[in-house]
Amino acid sequence: MKLPRISRMDLIKIGATIIGILILLMIFKDYLPQIKMMFDPSKRPQAIHEIRQHGAFDALLLMVLLFIGTVVPGIPVMPIAILAGLCFGTLFGTLINAISIGLGNLVAIHLISLFKRDVQKEYKHNRFADHLKNSKNPLMALVVGYSIPAIPSYLVSLQAANDERRFGNQLVQVAACLGTIPLALIYALGGNSLLAGKWLELLIVVIILLLFFLGADRFLKYLAG
């Protein structure tokens, strides 16, 4: 019986998934006392306070897990990024998400350039891929693509790898990093503003994101000359 051939990309996925599961177990073990306290209404405020007191080691674990999830397709990033916001607040959660996902996107672009043929087969008939490919403003399309949770970041990274020939590495990398900022903020908020009925806070965030996209568009056009 002939065994199925395992590609290098599949080996990377398997290795990254194993490492990700181990890190997730470490995080769960570290937060287990507070998780148990959350089921007791009288201890819930204390549990929330203690969750926010976790330090740099837990932040580093979350960053590594987010990085792996961004680099390797198939690992869900959203719940991890929302967890960062819940555990470390909106500001530090956004920083954790932006740094981890940003670095992950840059590494993903490089990996895709090495395994481009396999990735292109996977996303050959994807409507998001067609929109990105045919965009009149390719760099801004990357920023928006990375900013929308519904669009797989690996698909955007594939287009980014293709755009490097036209715009060069630096411009594409700037676009990739800019695109992670709104996404990091959205994940860090974790829907708390909407669920808590804080409409003013939500409105302010929407306005900030709109201003960000306008500024990012002008900045990229300026860099492109």
How would you describe the overall organization of this protein?
The chain is mainly α. It has one domain (8-224). The chain is 81% helix and 0% strand. It contains 11 helices and no strands. It is globular, with a radius of gyration of 19 Å. The termini are far apart. 32% of the residues are buried. The mean pLDDT is 79.
Question: Descriptors for this entry?
Answer:
225 residues; mainly alpha; 81% helix; 0% strand; globular
DSSP E strands, number: 0
The helix-strand sequence is HHHHHHHHHHH
The helix content, as a percent range, equals: over 70%
Beta content: under 5%
Structural class call reads mainly alpha
Count of separate DSSP helical elements:
11
- Tell me the radius of gyration: 19 Å
Summed over residues and divided by their number, the pLDDT gives a mean of: 79
Task: Sketch the major β-sheet.
Answer: none
What is the rounded distance between the termini? Answer: 59 Å
Low-confidence stretches: none
Number of domains: 1
Name the overall outline.
globular
What does the secondary structure layout of this molecule look like, with pairings?
Layout: H1 8-38, H2 44-51, H3 56-71, H4 78-114, H5 116-122, H6 127-133, H7 138-147, H8 153-167, H9 169-189, H10 192-195, H11 199-224
Helix pairs in contact: 1-2, 1-3, 3-4, 4-8, 4-9, 7-8, 7-9, 7-11, 8-9, 9-11
Concise account of the structure shown:
The chain has 225 residues and is mostly helical. It has 11 helices and no strands.
